[in-house]
Amino acid sequence: MEEIYAKFVSQKISKTRWRPVPPGSLQTAETFATGSWDNEENYVSLWSIGDFGNVDSDGGFEGEHQLLCDIKHHGDVMDLQTLSVSQQWTTAHYHTGPGSPSRSSAPCTGVVCDNPEIVTVGEDGRINLFRADHKEAVRTIDNADSSTLHAVTFLRTPEILTVNSIGQLKIWDFRKQGNEPSQILSLTGDRVPLHCVDRHPNQQHVVATGGQDGMLSIWDVRQGTMPVSLLKAHEAEMWEVHFHPSNPDHLFTCSEDGSLWHWDASTDAPEKSSLFNQGGRSSTFLSHSISNQANVHQSLISSWLSTDPAKDRIEITSLLPSRTLSVNSLDVLGPCLVCGTDAEAIYVTRQLFS
Amino acid sequence: MEELDGEPTVTLIPGVNSKKKQMCFDWGPGEMLVCETSFNKKEKSETVPGCPFIYIIRKDIDVYSQILRKLFNESHGIFVGLQRIEEELTGKSRKAQLVRVSKNYRSVIRACMEEMHQAAIAAKDPASGRQFSSQVSILSAMELIWNLCEILFIEVAPAGPLLLHLLDWVRLHVCEVDSLLADVLGSENPSKHESFWNLPGNTQTLTELELKWQHWHEECERHLQDGTFASSPRLESLCKIMLGDEAALLEQKELLNNWYHFLVTRLLYSHPTVKPIDLHFYAQSSLDLFLGGESSPEPLDNILMAAFEFDIHQVIKECSIALSNWWFVAHLTDLLDHCKLLQSHNLYFGSNMREFLLLEYASGLFAHHSLWQLGVDYFDYCPELGRVSLELHIERIPLSTEQKALKVLRICEQRQMTEQVRSICKILAMKAVRNNRLGSALSWSIRAKDAAFATLVSDRFLRDYCERGCFSDLDLIDNLGPAMMLSDRLTFLGKYREFHRFYGEKRFFDAASLLLSLMTSQIAPRCFWVTLLTDALPLLEQKQVIFTTEQTYELMRCLEDLASGRPVRGEPGAQRLQEDIENTKLEMLRLALARNLARAIIKEGSLEGS
């Protein structure tokens, strides 16, 4: 992990997202979007990272990111996704109750896209399904949850997975009618709120969540209702967790405690895993998956699901040079990482794996 | 009451007719509210239409500047870093570290200045261009003062290196003039002059330096006496300058921007080994000579003079008056305090100057909708009043989304401010209940460990059950986990739901004993007993005997407790009806219990009954 560039931008950053590059292209990420929060006027801004052509005297690249354009945003920016769309859906989330006879709007906390479908969740416990070309919501699940839904992700279309503030994961299937989730998984012990969720890019049953106590949990949604492993990570809320899209043995988390961690669970040889296991669970899991899939390769068995999250197997590095205020958001694409903090700074690095 | 240091400025408020009407005002943490009253100032009552607005008046507008925000954020990082390394700062490296911190602060100011300058150039209208430019000059003055303080107070340069630092200081701030002067000087005696001063480090002692300089000075004088430069008046005046002749120097006034440039030039040529304590003599005379009685010193001049006199308190006081924002004095004072330069200068309310300034600065940050997060760390490092101030401020931050509330709560929890945690969670839980988000309300009460509120939420659930006959939000109640123990009512809710589940799964014996324990353990609210007993009915009516005799006696006791406990009421019609229904229920229960008792006795008495 070589250089990381910081720039102070006069707004607290709540979300950062890379602009997706076309699949199969050899380009690396060039543009990212940020959303601000807690300002009287919030902005969604597009930035480009430094010119590739200019090499400064140290032989490095000119690092500073430049603002391309921005647009005003009503309210805090809670989540960002990239899609071509020309619609605006206001009052997608609202509260009704004895105390608020007319609808008062509720914050929308998460949005996820899978062209052309958009799913949003909010503090009102509602799930909305939109289509890019439809004016009204295609499907709404009212009162899907009695507490706040913090984040949503696609499991395999048409299934989505939500996490809420009483420590539960719920899987919803849009093919089914009715307002009940098809599966509920929850943490053992204290029902600590879960703030973020991400699905393994290749193995759609492996899901990682981050909680209010900074704990990272890895789940297998096919098996059981409890997490497979719990890893004590940060000292405060974990705001985002991301599997690296092309190297899924690498996981990134960021937290209110001002740190950003890179979890490296890559193992060189599959045999290594058997050396470190103590129980027989991993090997039975191995056989389980082998029996399910005819042509499974060793490498497909996710290192995240093995037992004994042994500290000698997962290497954890902190990526930010010094402790700062909360790191609210991060995104990874290829060798590039961007993150935004409450200290009004954006950090970018283009050499994640060097 | 102290006398005022200067005349207070008058601010006119548009729309308010202060001549005719009386105004009223109230102070806030960083602002003032002002409005017109309906009282007239003079006796005659002229009916003048009043101004309907309430005005918010802020003194500190810098907090709202986009570019200055970067200053606040970056310096916050430096400030916190300085406080954290305080314990590790020892011995020789301490001074070097503190100088480095000072340079960091200054580089942040310079970066801001640069950006502000760019904005001034790119400004679309002349008014904002002027505003940016004036900000640039304020920042430049700040950096000038800080730099001087760094040289005199932090670096504590001794005689010899002192002049070098002062030279750098002036050069940094008067660079374009310096290039002109260099041209003039460069044409004559360049090597003699520059190589003399390119001393690599402190390899020479002060006396060696003095001797060398003395020798050179005498040579210059000899040249002048001999009239070597008599042919060229320019060269002659140049020589006089190099001898430190004040009159000659003053002739070049246009090249010297200001008196401190004059001062340093003078020192360079007449007293290069000046000692720090002698500085203020030369400074005062330079100021007087330069101004020549034509103009009076400006605030910046006074501040610099105070610095030359090593009067730190005066420097800080003058800066506080001259600048509209506490940023500068707060950070500079904190740094000087780390250098152990401030005696405990007690103010009216007992805390020291450093803390006072930091508190003022942090309070200003809290008045800002977004920068309050920075203010938290400043309060942390104010040992006497910081915590109390933070407690007061943090409760008043408006919480528009849950995410913001979570951050505020985290700040409170990290500092063990349990009262604030409780009150914030209560506000959020109330909001959630009003919006019918019972799960959220429960999760807030769990966070605050607020048993009373958990009871309130459980009562709501139970009421909903009574009204609708079924539970809402089963996903929550079924998955309470250890949180169930938070309050009795909540435990009851969880267990009651479990009872329903048992019944649904036809685990009648489990259901029965659970039901009984709910009643006997006193966690069921009284008003619910009828419902519980009524729930027992289907179990009593089953073909097999479910309740044992013991259990049946218990149930009967509960029933009689309930029946006797209810007061006999007066007679409005609906009440009557309700009572009749209640009485019928009670009768049915008594009958069912009696029958069950009979069957149970028989079952237990007979041989197979076990």
TrEMBL record, chain A:
UniProt entry keywords in alphabetical sequence: Nucleus, Repeat, WD repeat
One Pfam family it belongs to: WD40
Keyword tRNA processing: no
One GO CC term on file: nuclear pore outer ring
Domain of life: Eukaryota
Main location: nucleus
Subcellular localization(s) per the UniProt record: Nucleus
Chain positions of WD repeats: 187-229, 231-273
Name used for this protein in its record: Nucleoporin 43
TrEMBL record, chain B:
Domain of life from the UniProt record: Eukaryota
GO biological process, one term: positive regulation of DNA-templated transcription
Record field: transmembrane: none
Keyword Cell division attributed: no
Sorted UniProt keywords: Membrane, mRNA transport, Nuclear pore complex, Nucleus, Protein transport, Translocation, Transport
Gene Ontology MF, one: structural constituent of nuclear pore
Subcellular location: Nucleus, Nuclear pore complex
Major location (coarse): nucleus
GO cellular component: nuclear membrane; nuclear pore outer ring
Annotated PANTHER family: FROUNT PROTEIN-RELATED, NUCLEAR PORE COMPLEX PROTEIN NUP85
Family: Belongs to the nucleoporin Nup85 family.
Function according to Swiss-Prot or TrEMBL: Functions as a component of the nuclear pore complex (NPC).
Complexes and interactors: Component of the nuclear pore complex (NPC).
Name of this protein: Nuclear pore complex protein Nup85
Organism per entry: Panthera tigris altaica
Gene transcribed to yield this protein: NUP85
